[in-house]
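Onboarding guide, step 5: your first structure request.
Type a short instruction followed by the sequence, for example:

Predict the 3D structure of this protein.
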Amino acid sequence: MRKISRIGLSVFLTLGLFGGIVSAEPITNDEIAVISTVNKAYQAAINLDAGTFTGVTIDLSMNSEEKQLQQMTKVYDIVREGKRNKNSEADYLISFEIGEITKISDTEYSVYMTQTFSKSGVNPSYNIPVVKKEGQWIVVLENIVVIDKRNPEAVAYIDEMIRLSAIRSANPVLTVEKLADNKEIAIYKESYKNQ
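The system replies with structure tokens like these:
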């Protein structure tokens, strides 16, 4: 495991890839490519650029890049409309920070991320997977559920999902894993056997 810090998005964009990274050891070419891919994906999310985002991510719940692009385009259109409407409850990504990067294998890394959203603020940090597929590094989009602990319906939902995942005979394909939390927000990953 190697700790790599990023000095803020604006400084990073000003200094460039190498100037914005601090590490005790030289960074490998694969680590540079992984960091670049994560930056490209999350900057595309900030810019609501579905084409770029889809080009460097994979959503395992969708069976094609075309379907993922259609879905992300719809989502980003809704977010754009929410940004135009000042009274909107839209909660969109406004910044991100890369923390530790851990090599799992020659074709997989885990990247510790912190994301800041327009309404909910800084979310708890958690690891995202980045894999090499057909020679290209891509961010794996998992089924992440963000729960506002102040919202009783949201808490009831995740409690029910956890209960169902614990009853293997009732729903043997569902697992729910808490990835991170703080006083206000909990982040879970829902996984299904076929994913």
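Each response can be followed by summary notes, for example: The helical segments are 9-19, 29-46, 50-55, 65-84, 152-166.
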